[in-house]
Design a protein that fits this description.
By secondary structure, the protein is mainly α. The protein folds into two domains: 1-30; 32-129, Orthogonal Bundle (Cytochrome Bc1 Complex, Chain D, domain 2). 49% of the residues lie in helices and 0% in strands. The chain is built from six helices and no strands. It has helices at 3-30, 33-39, 79-82, 90-98, 100-103, 117-129. Helix 2 crosses helix 6 (117-129) and helix 4 (90-98) crosses helix 6. The protein is globular, with a radius of gyration of 20 Å. It starts with a helix and ends with a helix. Residues 1-28 have low confidence and may be disordered.
C-alpha cells in the first residue's frame, strides 16, 4: 500500500470511529426508557409515577419533565425546592439525580443519587416517557 493510500485509509478509519463514538454518545445521552423503568424501582420506595398516583415520602413524579420544581399538588416541599425557580428538564434532572444535595443544597431528598451516567440517562428517559 502506498503512503498516500495508507494515510487515506487511516483517515477513513478515524472518521468512521469518530462517527461511531458520536452516535454512541447521542444514544447514551438519550437513554433507554425501558431500562430506566428498571432503574426507577429504586425510586419506588419514596415516589410514585402513575398519573393521579399519591405522594409518598417524595412527590409523585408523573409529568416531572416540564413541571416547575417544587410544584406537585399536595406535597410538602423543602423551602430550597419551593424556591428553586426552575422547570425540570433533562439537564436539570441529570444534575439533580447525580447528586441531589450538591445540586440543590437544603432539599430533603435523602437519596445519594444515581452516579452511573448510563443508568441516569435511562432513568431520565423513563421519567420523560411518563411525563406525557
Amino acid at each position: 500500500m502506498s503512503a498516500k493510500r495508507s494515510v487515506l485509509f487511516a483517515s477513513a478509519l478515524l472518521m468512521s470511529g469518530g462517527i461511531l463514538i458520536v452516535q454512541g454518545t447521542a444514544q447514551a445521552a438519550d437513554g433507554d426508557a425501558a431500562a430506566g423503568k428498571a432503574v426507577f424501582n429504586t425510586c419506588k420506595a419514596c415516589h410514585t409515577i402513575e398519573a393521579g398516583g399519591p405522594n409518598r415520602v417524595g412527590p409523585n413524579l408523573h409529568g416531572i419533565v416540564g413541571r416547575p420544581a417544587g410544584s406537585a399538588a399536595g406535597f410538602s416541599y423543602s423551602p430550597a425546592m419551593k424556591d428553586a425557580g426552575y422547570v425540570w428538564d433533562e439537564q436539570k434532572l441529570d444534575t439533580y439525580l447525580k447528586d441531589p444535595k450538591a445540586a440543590l443544597p437544603g432539599n430533603n431528598m435523602a437519596f445519594a443519587g444515581v452516579k452511573d451516567d448510563a443508568k441516569r440517562a435511562d432513568l431520565i428517559a423513563y421519567l420523560k416517557s411518563e411525563s406525557q
